[in-house]
Amino acid sequence: CLEEIPDGLDGLDEEWQVEHDRHVLRRLLDLIRPEFSDSTWQAFRLTAVQGQATDEVARGLGISENAVVIARSRVLRRLKLMGRDLVDWLGD
Question: What global pTM score does this model have?
Fold first, then answer.
């Protein structure tokens, strides 16, 4: 019975988990977005999400490289805190 189910379902389980994680991340990002200015959010999105180089983003946004790094760090720190809060809430 259960032994006859093909192992290929493990791949589906992994796919579901990846999609679930993406959904949770998108929702957390939507929740924290209003807390940040447009330039801070763009610096985060372009470097952390799209993988663009810090110097490129700084030039494109007309801010210093240090400002880009700080912006990315601020958003990531908030995202981690929000994620931790979610895990704590689910554990209660």
Answer: 0.76
d(CA 44, CA 52): 10
In angstroms, how far is CA 70 from the centroid of its own chain? 16
CA–CA gap between residue 65 and residue 20 (Å, rounded): 33
pLDDT (tens digit per residue) in 23-75: 888 999 999 999 999 999 999 999 999 999 999 999 999 999 999 999 999 99
Indicate the residue type of 67: A
Cα three-residue angle 23-29-34, rounded to 5 degrees: 145
